[in-house]
Amino acid sequence: AFLSVFTLLSGLILVCLTILLTSEWGLQRLYSIAMQSAAANLPGSIKIESLKGRLLGPITIDSITYTFNGSTILANDISLDWNILALFSGTLHVNEFNVGKFEYDSKTEEKTLDNSKSPIPETIPKIIPQIVLPIKIEIDRAFVSNIAIKNNSDRKSTRLNSSHTDISRMPSSA
Which of 22, 57, 147, 162 is the most exposed place for a label (fewest CB within 10 A)? Predict the structure, then answer.
């Protein structure tokens, strides 16, 4: 009796894991959990549009927007091919990561002292907080087609097109 219950439960767990890892439904469930965690723990706000694929990969995303202290990071046309099994060894191993457009828009504000007319830039720039990950990250290939960095306080913009970065197993420190 015990052996048949154990076999039935093992089979059920295997079927559930297979569905979770190999279907878009599984990716959407994990996305829902991750967004709830991000809302509770990540400063600022994050919005992801049109997440498609499966947990085993590849995964495509139309856009990710992250806003913090008035500054915005936007990435469009994202594709990710990764090795999910590497997570068991404490490593996020990305085989290939592509971004069509990456844009950072800094909304640095100006302040005035008392009643003076001259604006004085803030002494502490608004930056994205340091986020420490509990795992190592390895990226084999990364490609960004267009990069734009904007600073609204001086109305200047920097653009870089067709930036290609190949990274050969360059691990980050955890």
Answer: 162
Residue 54, both tokens: 């499966």
Confirm if 73 and 65 have CB atoms less than 8 A apart. Answer: yes
- Spatial contact of 93 and 138, defined as CB atoms under 8 Å apart: yes
Average the pLDDT over 46-67 and give the result.
Answer: 93
d(CA 12, CA 161): 49
Please report how many Cα atoms fall inside a 13 Å half-sphere around the Cα of residue 152, on the Cβ side: 11
Is 18 strand, coil or helix?
helix
- Token duo for residue 85: 């099994």
Q: Tokens 């992801």 appear where?
A: 48
Q: Convert the pLDDT of each residue in 57-87 to its tens digit.
A: 899 999 999 998 888 999 999 999 999 889 8
What is the SS3 assignment for 24?
A: helix
Q: Which amino acid is at 140?
A: D
Residue 110 is predicted with a pLDDT of 44
Q: Which residues pair with 108 in a beta bridge?
A: none
What residues contact 53, with CB distance under 8 A and at least 6 apart? 24, 27, 59, 60
CB neighbours (10 Å) of residue 133?
10
23 by DSSP, 3-state: which? Answer: coil
